[in-house]
Specification:
Layout: H1 13-36, H2 43-56, E1 60-61, E2 78-82, E3 85-87, E4 101-110, E5 113-122, H3 128-145, H4 154-167, E6 172-173, E7 179-181, E8 188-192, E9 209-212, E10 215-217, E11 223-225, E12 232-234, E13 240-242, E14 245-248, E15 255-256, E16 263-264
Antiparallel strand pairs: 1-4, 2-4, 3-12, 4-5, 6-10, 7-8, 7-9, 9-14, 10-13, 11-12, 14-15, 15-16
Bound molecules: 2-amino-4-trifluoromethylsulfanyl-butyric acid and cobalt (II) ion.
């Protein structure tokens, strides 16, 4: 039987090794930012940390100057989204406070290959339901990553993410944004929904790389974009969490390229 080429970029083993280098820069940066994100620090200072680490590694930013929707190039190297900000918050003068949930998204390019990941960070003492929101979002990400296997289908990932979120309590899944293919560009085919039935979409093949990124809310999942043209917020003002990894589909199983340690699921 013939199968239509999915149009998803297939990486060689050597290209995946370079993506792992980019992923390590991302992992180290998010680790440093997680340690630095304490009450009193500004999101702009965290952006500076990320710029320094990029320079130390001879890497460049996937985000800086990125034009997605409209004519406003993205001004930071990180996205810093606090509390009701879901994703794409612009780093700046905002001071982190005790109890904030800070989501940091970061992408790096090494030799033309991209890595992209995000973490939600508990700043100081955070309300238990907010900590739980972040924990569930991260768990849903790992369930999705585990489905990045050859001969699986794309929406096996979507369904695994949704299942963890829905079985963990009364949370919302943001539907307007999702994950994406990644490699020689940050955003590539396919788009990856964080919900839906399994067994649909392209067949996953060894050499594909995917960025899986659930965005989960405490209240309603409805979102809007602020006048800065970037910051995505919940419409009801409730907290949102965002976790992301870049994963390679390999014959040895999912390889989490943006993890600090060498993780193969
Ligand atoms: N990691 C983000 C995503 O995949 C990218 C942030 S958008 C940018 O959605 F403009 F900052 F690059
Ligand atoms: Co992404």
């Amino acid at each position: 039987m013939f199968r239509r080429n999915s149009g998803i970029e297939i990486k060689s083993a050597d290209q995946l090794s370079v993506m792992r280098q980019a992923g390590l820069v991302v992992a180290r940066t998010l680790d440093a930012i997680t340690k630095a994100a304490v009450p009193g620090v500004t999101t702009g200072q965290l952006d500076e940390i990320a710029r320094d680490i990029l320079a130390d590694h001879g890497a460049t930013s996937s985000f800086l100057g990125y034009k997605a929707h409209g004519a406003v190039p993205y001004p930071g190297v990180i996205c810093a989204s606090v509390n009701e900000e879901v994703v794409h918050g612009i780093p700046g003068a905002r001071i982190l406070r005790d109890g904030d949930l800070l989501s940091v998204d970061f992408g790096a390019i090494v030799d033309g290959w991209n890595g992209d990941a995000a973490v939600s960070i508990l700043v100081g003492d955070v309300a238990p339901e907010v900590a739980e929101l972040s924990r569930v979002t991260e768990a849903s990400l790992w369930a999705g990553l585990a489905r990045a296997r050859p001969d699986g289908r794309l929406t096996d990932i979507s369904h695994a993410v949704e299942t963890v979120v829905m079985e963990s309590g009364d949370f919302g899944i943001v539907e307007e944004y999702g994950g994406h293919g990644i490699g020689s560009r940050m955003h590539m085919e396919p788009h990856i929904l964080n919900y839906g039935s399994a067994g649909r979409g392209p067949v996953l093949r060894s050499g594909m790389a995917l960025a899986i990124e659930p965005m989960v809310t405490l209240g309603s999942p409805e979102v809007g974009v602020l006048a800065d043209a970037w910051t995505v917020v919940t419409m009801d003002g409730g907290c949102a969490a965002h976790w992301e990894h870049t994963v390679a589909v390999t014959d040895e199983g999912p390889w989490v390229l943006t993890a600090l340690d060498d993780v193969r699921l």
